[in-house]
User: Fold this.
Amino acid sequence: ENEWADLLPALYACAQDGNASLRESAYRVFSSCPYLLSGQSPDSVNSAFGGAFQDGDATVRLAALQASVQYILAATDKQRPALAPMMPQMLGVLEPLQRDGDEDGLTEALSALIEAAEETPKLFRAVLDSLVTFATAIGKNDALEATTRQTAMELLVTLAESAPGMCRKNAQFCQQIVPVCLQMMSSIEDDEEWYTVETLDDSDNDENHVFGEQTLDRLANALGGKQLLPVAFNYIPQMLASSEWNQRHAGLMAVSSIGEGCLKIMRNELGKIVHMVVPFFTDSHPRVRYAVCNCIGQMATDFAPKLQEEHHAAVLSALIPVMDQTSVPRVQTHAAAAMVNFAEEATKQVLEPYLDTLFERLLAMLNGSKRYVQEQAITTIATIADNAQAKFNKYYSTIMPMLLNVLAQATDHDHRLLRGKAMECATFIALAVGKDVFAPDIPRVIELLTLTQQSVTEADDPQASYLQASWARLCKLMGAEFAPILPVVMPPLLTAAKQQPDFAVLEADEDAETGYSAEDGWEFANIGGQQIGIRTTLLEEKCEAVELIGTYARDLGTGFVPYAAETLETLVPLFKFYFHEGVR
Assistant:
């Protein structure tokens, strides 16, 4: 409120002081309170910061860079163009940090520039050439920490997403970045644990090879195939022909990563691409076979329905046998997962000739020793049943007793996800074969689902979401006959629909992961010098509950009347639930 007239002169004095700690403190205050400079002319701010960017103390230079970014973010659209002359000096802070081996400082500096790139990418136009050269040199330097390398590449891909036109016009942008992504993707290492794990998770998401895949995917989506595809295919064929398994793996993952962004061009060459990747289903290395399953699975989504209609014979004749590879359960499971993507976009006519051989292999997987293999088999069976509809009748008497047995017998904590998938599969099959075929098993399924619902007491129990969706499918099948079950299914849905989102407000330098991990559904955004967090998993649960309540109201008609008043009381206030568009 301009009531502390002495503050700004005092900060300017500190910024010129002979004590480096005082100089750094001044710029840290400017970083937290950039509005203090809002009344100053851009020229005077440029001049003040210019000296700090060349300060003899690295902490002062870094603090000045962070403060300048916050000042740029706080500036108006009219003020920002006048700040462009400051950009070369800001980037000048990076090179000494790298030269002195200060990776923590370099990562902090790059992270600050990422904030600027998100909001004001056009300010980088004049320095884009030098920035691309510097950041890619960091990205491909194997001697540096993964975090440092990834942050440098993140800055470039953020610019591509924020100002794709500017980056397309830069001749060197793709030429320099794509090889670094492919190099990162090739850094994958073989380790025994990959083959022996009992549960599948995303524990390698921070690895360089995964980051390379994600970055290439984002670049392709931001810049499009015309820019990226020629550069990528300068390298991919020779990678696929390499004697090194990690090169072949990276080449296949590159094809799957760029498909969505390069869709228009790659679709016209789909036959050649399928012909290029399918032979790797028989590669000598299991990790390469895993990669081609991933590649075909992604292509089945990106290039649907063309892939299914025109190339089903080439794809499925190579993919289905991989589901027999019991010696490498992760490859076997990934093949079944790719089959889900293929079946979701295939017509009944395309899939019908393969049903017998698919069902035979999936049944064998369901009897496998690893739980994650069983879980994937059940998911794939559900997808195929949903596709096949009445054609699935011939398999019903074999599979349904097995699923009911899972629900009845696999009651321990470790089998919760398996049970959830069994519920999903059983109810998808029920919809596929119809009420007449499913009728003898309806009472038993209702009994087992009710018992399961009574056993769900923990907030993170994966069975909860599977239960809600399974009940909804039964309602669709049974119609008005489902009304007596509403007292079982509605209370948890109404509770979920009423729950309020969790929020957290942290200072900019606090570590959000310590108490608010992404695994628990927390997402943070930097707003006004603070980190504002919201737990998005609760929002998704709330949205799903509202959708399912609508399903019951629609499918049951007058049978829903006993819950109409409480439902309206719960839902009408949600017209103003501004945290989630889906809920509204």
